[in-house]
Amino acid sequence: MNRYLLLICLALISVVLSGCWDSNELNDLAVSVGMGLDKKGNKVQVSTQIVNPSEVATKRGGGYSAPVTTFTATERTTLEALRKITSVSPRKVFSSHLRILVIGEALARNGVAEVMDSISRNHELRSDFYIIVPKGTTAKSVLSILNPIEKIPSNKMFSSLEVSEGTWAPAAKVELFEFMADLSDPSKENILTGIRIAGDASAGNKLSNVEQIVPSAILQYSGIAVFKGDRLVDWLNQDESKGYNYIVGNVKNSIGHIRCPDGNGVLTVDVTRTISKIKGILSNGKPKIKINLFIEENVAGVQCQIDLTKPETIREIEDLSNQKLTTMMESAIRKAQRNKADIFGFGQAIENAHPRQWQKLKNDWPDRFSDLDVDINVDTRIRRLGTTSNSAIESWE
Amino acid sequence: MIEQGKIAPYQFTILVILFTVGSTILIIPSGLAFEAKHDAWISSLIGPAVGLIFVALYHLLGQRYPALTFVEIVMHTLGKWIGGAISLLYVFFFFILGALVLRNLGDFMTTQVLPNTPIQYIHILFVLVVISGVRNGLEVFTRTAEIFLPWVILFFLFLIVLLPYQFKLDNLLPVVGYGIAPVARAALPYIGSPYAELITLLVLYPYVSNNRKAGKAFAIGVLIAGFILFLIVMTTILVLGPKITAVQMFPSYILAKKISVGHFLERVEVIMAGIWFITIYFKLTICYYASTVSLAHVFKLKECRQLYLPLGFSLIVLSIISYPNTTYFFHIVTRIWSFYSLTFGVLLPLIILGLSLMRRQGAGSS
Fold first, then answer.
1. What is the ipTM of this complex?
2. Tens-digit pLDDT profile for residues A246-261
3. Does residue A282 sit at the B interface (CB-CB below 8 Å)?
4. Which of A341, B89, B156, B201 matches a 20 to 30 Å C-alpha distance to B20?
């Protein structure tokens, strides 16, 4: 009898105990999917893109209000500003589902160490979001553009980056931990992918933007931002970004073109596989880098007067591809060297090969990097010609 | 003897595994990565190797006095007064160890999982479970350990198996690039905790049914636990890299956060936290059990039931006041704890064994 009484008591206690301190009801939370950080004087402006649940969850109807709302607040530090958002948001901001972190260009040029530290210290933020930098605009305006197809703009930016990194060479996704690890590392500088607003930014934050077939404003990834320490110092253009991604082995799949052997028109190639190896060498105490890039391509489009049925032609195309890739990679390296920012991790390659000598080299590494000898060796293999053999253009002649 | 129960050698192995993995699994990768960087995994192999030497020492000691409890061994060799004082110091050692283990769990919960919950309530709830475990006696909580160990292994395998595609082999380079010194330096705190703490298990030694096999069971337990800890260190370095690992408070939890299979199987880290919930529970239970039983032996009490509740409350208080902030804790762990635990885990047992050998005591002389 006593036993049963005890059991009942325990059961009753558990009812009371479950009302714990950390209960968070879903309908009391504002789920933040995107966070933007901008510089406002010596303060930080935090913008959060909050999902509007009634708009996103409905199967039918909806469309009366925007699927997301962007709140902003400005304070001396990031977390203060984030907390201050409660003064405009009806619910507590919940950041565990963050998809994208946008760091405004002005802030990035001024140094991101403070904001990144508070973000990595916060237990609520996970590490599975990507970090990007808007080019020529602010983080707030990037988070204020509505997108077609994907209702939540931050999700669009997240998946757009994943898809384009997989199929289009100039994009690179960077997660919090990679960024933090490289931030403190003299042997590797950071990069972040840039994003820009194509079209009329002011029209982008209205629902009407997605009511048209061709939206007035759309978000587009473009270029790669080069960091030195925690400051943004330069941008890589599209070709340099491609070169960067080939060097570090980020390219899974891409499309590129090379000039025809006779100089008229271009030839499109589809990159299907790449393997890149960076090797650090010390010759007479002088650091040197050797890059070996192995790349497999398919011919995807031909505007040239060439005979693709001959093995020599293929060899010729392979040579042209080697040259083109080498120039792209060299241009990326030149720009990085001009900024003395080792974004490729060449220093790491030398550290891995010669850890003891690296201890001496690392102190003036930025200067050494700026006139470092880099030996690039590209090995292109053309594998297939697509579904047709010779071009129709060729047979007209 | 107060404890009437007996445990089989394989059950002893299970307790050794859970005790050694204990709270170490939660924090060890960052400590090792801080000093040894890429080579943290090598340091993690030195730990169990040295641990085996300690086990040999404890086995020698336990074998000489198969019928005596740990406190009785100490009193027997060092005399009533000095022995009694040393035994009391041992009681404090087990007790402080328990408090730190408890605080580890509390800190983890308030940092990562329940940031708004007062740490006292987490400690109270946890200690209540520990007391109920100890009240039921050695045999019962050992059988509980037997039930829970497969779950620990299962979750652990789950954690390891879901991560290999995030491995970056470059994180291991350069291998021993900076010489052996940082590797050895990193290993010292790891030897201090948990391997020198294994002395706590000597309290359970007389209750192992087959005293001869106890040493082997002890060694196997240390080896398995060492391997588990090696795997977690290796995986953390491979996935997070030495730099990120070194700055994390709870790297294993961050590791579990990294699990993401096709954006589908993710956010499972709290389930993974079940691993150290269980291991910490058993480490704490063993520490608590060792301190209460030893205290009862020192004062020759007939039974120690009346000690459980008051000591449990003291444990909660001690765990809260033992250190004021995280920085202080790191200071204790890196600078002080190893020497404290090595004094009690190696130096004193060596002295006791030496005295006993000189006087040709033991082996049934009791």
1. 0.82
2. 999 888 888 888 888 8
3. no
4. B89
